[in-house]
Structure formats: C-alpha cells, structure tokens
Amino acid sequence: MNKAKPIIHWMLALALAVVFGSSGIWKLYAPAQAGIRQVEAGVPSAYALPWAVVLGAFELFAAVLLVVPAWRRGGALLAGALALSFMIYMGARYSELKGMECGCMPGRHRALDGWFFVEDGAMLAAAMAVAWLAGSAAAFRRAFWKPALALLLIVCVGAASATLERTMLAGNASLSLRVMDRSGKVAEMPLSPRSETLLYFMSPSCLDCQRASLVIGKLRLAAPLVVVPDSRAESIYEYLNQAGIKNAVISLDYATMAPRLQLKQVPALYVFLGAAPQALILNFDPAALEKELRSRRLLN
User: Which DSSP string corresponds to the chain?
Assistant: First the structure.
C-alpha cells in the first residue's frame, strides 16, 4: 500500500490539475464568452466579465500549484475550496438553476442536477486526499513569493485577455450588447472575437418562434445563446423556461441589431465569430437544425 500511495497521489493531483487548468485557461482565453456563461448561471451581468477572469485565474492557479510537488498541498486546498464553493452556490440556487449548463468547462455539457453534486463532491474528496498525501507545506511557506508571483502573472494575463477582447471590439456597438440578467439589471457585454456566439432573434407573439424555441430547448448548445426579442424583454426569461431553454441571456439590442443585419424575418439564428456573422439559420426543422449546428461543432 505504501508503494501505491505516490502513484495514487500523482494520479489524483494530475487529474485535478487537468480539470481546473482546462476550465481556467478557457475562461482566460475567451473571457467574454465565459462572462455570458456566468450570466446564464445567475451572476449579475455587471460583474460577469471580471468574475470570469478572477475565477479562471484561481482555477488555473490551483492547477499550477497541483503540478508542483512543493506547492501541491496549497493547490489541493484551493481546488477543494473552489469545488465546495461551487456546490454551495449551486445548491443555494438549485430550484432556480436546475437543468442549466454550469458553464464550468469548454466542450462539455454539465447540466445542474444531482450528478453535478456527485462530480463536484468527488473532486472535493480527491482534493482532500491529495492534501493528506502531500508532503509538508513548509516549502510552500518558505517560498511563498513564488506562488504569489505565479498568481499575479495569471491575473495579469486574464486582465490583458479581457482588455484585448474589448479593444478588438471597440467602436463596434453591435458587438457590445446590452445584456439583461434574471434580476432585470442591464450591463454591457461584449461578444467574444475568439469563439462563436449564437444570436437568436425572435418575437414572443410569433407562433413560428414558439415552435423554434421548443426545438432549441432540446439541444445542448456548445456556444452561448443570446436571445434578442423584439418586445417584452422583461418576460422573456419565463418564456424561455417554458420552452425548455435553460442556457440563454437576453439582449435589448433588437432595434439596433435588426437593421444592421437587414433582418427580414423571425425566428432567425445567427452564428457570430467576433465582428462577423458566420451563418444565418432560418430552418428550424429539428433534424435540419441539429445537422447544421453539429456540422459547425456548436452542439455538445
């Protein structure tokens, strides 16, 4: 058993580092997209972008600590604290966010349900096991300035990434949307120039839109969905919940975006990459829509 301990220790540490590292790198690489995901998960829209950067920085920092043996105990404790905080937050808002994509990792659908707590509970248990198996934290304390410098560098990279995204979008108002969160608060939210975003133009009084919304509600979208209604924005979240669309944010920019895109009908689903619309989807037949989105790798 003593011989197996180092192997188990390394396997658990590296597995946690991969999970937290990939999640953190994604948030720092495309903070605007991660910010929209945070709004979907109930973070106030005004704080979603900086929160995505801070959260991504700490996730990546935990991964860095986990791969360095002398810092591993600190990384395990930080990873455990993050997993526990996710469980507490999602548990406190479970009735509101049930079925919603947690926005934790790229390319993987993690709907909020009982399995979310099983998976995060397993990560918490693994983190505590790594902390127990790790050596003394004395080396970490003696050279505290090194991990502190690593954290500072990671935060700077995240802030620079977010600033670069905003700079790339500067002067293009159509890509800095007025996003309304579930509490009714409105804030500016840029679209990521590094990853796709789906803009769904619809009208709550349109029967075709109701049918299209039901189809969209059954899909597991890999890209953030921004719904742009032509009216009654304050009641659209309830409308989307009834249609089964759990992951979406509302934009109040129909009046400016529709003329710019020369929108002729709703429902209409645009695929955006940065400043450029990549595709316009008008066929909401379930099989056709799934085929189109899958061909563009926009489904999980």
Answer: -TTHHHHHHHHHHHHHHHHHHHHHHHHHHSHHHHHHHHHHTT--TTTHHHHHHHHHHHHHHHHHHHHSGGGHHHHHHHHHHHHHHHHHHHHHTHHHHTT-B---STT---BSSHHHHHHHHHHHHHHHHHHHHS--THHHHHTTHHHHHHHHHHHHHHHHHHHHHHHHHTT-GGGEEEEE-TTS-EEEEEPPSSSEEEEEEE-TT-HHHHHHHHHHHTS-BSS-EEEEESS-GGGHHHHHHHHT--S-EEES-HHHHHHHHT--SSSEEEEEETTEEEEEE----HHHHHHHHHHTT-B-
Give residue limits of the domains in the chain: 4-169, 195-295
- Nearest one of 294, 271, 296, 266 to 282, comparing CA atoms: 266
Cα 16 to the center of its chain, rounded Å: 19
Query: In which residue are the tokens 């910010």 written?
Result: 35
Number of residues written out for the chain: 300
Q: How far apart are CA 280 and CA 287, in angstroms?
A: 17
- CA–CA gap between residue 87 and residue 77 (Å, rounded): 15
Q: What is the pLDDT along the chain (300 residues), one digit of tens a residue?
A: 567 777 888 899 999 999 999 999 988 888 888 888 888 888 888 888 889 899 999 999 999 999 988 888 889 999 999 999 999 998 888 887 787 776 666 655 666 778 889 989 999 999 999 988 886 555 556 666 677 788 888 888 877 777 766 655 444 444 688 999 888 899 888 888 778 899 999 999 999 999 999 999 999 888 889 999 999 888 999 999 999 998 899 999 999 999 989 999 999 999 998 767 899 999 999 999 999 999 998 887
**Shortest CA distance to 41 belongs to which of 120, 123, 122, 105?**
105
The top-level CATH class assigned to 195-295 is alpha beta
